[in-house]
Amino acid sequence: KMDWISYHRLDDIxxxxxxxxxxxxxxxxxxxxxxxxxxxxxxxxxxxxxxAPDSQPAxxxxxxxxxxxxxxxxxxxxxxxxxxxxxxxxxxLNNIDWYIMPxxxxxxxxxxxxxxxxxxxxxxxxxSARCLGVxxxxxxxxxxxxxxxxxxxxxxxxxxxxxxxxxxxxxxSKFIISKSKQIKLxxxxxxxxxxxxxxxxxxxxxxxNFADMLALGNCAASKFKIFKYxxxxxxxxxxxxxxxxxxxxxxxxxxxxxxxxxPTRGFVVPASSITPIVQDFFPAIDVFATKIATLK
Length: 296
Ligand code: 0X9
Ligand code: ZN
What we know:
alpha/beta, Aminopeptidase, 8-stranded mixed sheet, 8 helices, 8 strands, globular, binds zinc ion, metalloprotease, protease
């Protein structure tokens, strides 16, 4: 099945999601939101014990935007396991629907496993025969094409031919829009850097509820015991990245939006570090859930 002492290929991860949906049919629903450029399914899970659909606040969590950041799908699957399979965490099901997509860029993820460990982007054809792929985290339709993105297909931060040029980001955005009334918290898991990053990321600007997001982020980060995370605005702590998904999520009205940069330093995290990183992170989920469950 699944473990957090090794990294897993896409088939294993999807097999685990399938297993959970089959084993806990009243709790877990497997949702296919479309197909990747190379024809892989785009799966996420909905975890909920509500009887009426869409009747309570929801949390969105994704991983695997950037192919090489393997620790992020590992954390996403760990969060799924903790919510679904650990009775001690049953309170996380009170008044919250969870939408969790472990691998948002499956083509890139598989390519980083079988061909090129440090692959980042999608795998679509571009106008350059030699350079494939778009940076999915520069492909979103908010301030698309601004600072920190590139129009050069050979760049690691290539923005694509237009906003949502990628079938993966388009399917993702359509699903989130369909749930945007319910989703109150948005976490997109990346690596690396040990940071909780708060919009905006397109420029040094701050959303109107920045102070609230900072306070909740600090509260969540105070739970981390092994790894210390910095909390703050993206541009202040990192760099400009116009067209990133978190800015877009904020722009459509989601209250609490964070880009998580997981430990440590470097994209290649040894498998022996998965368990400490995911275990250290999980208590923050409880902090976020407690806050979100009260929002209407
Ligand atoms: O550059 C990115 O897309 C993210 N970092 S990563 O190393 N995972 O690629 C950061 C995006 C966060 N947003 C901003 N820096 N504005
Ligand atoms: Zn990333």
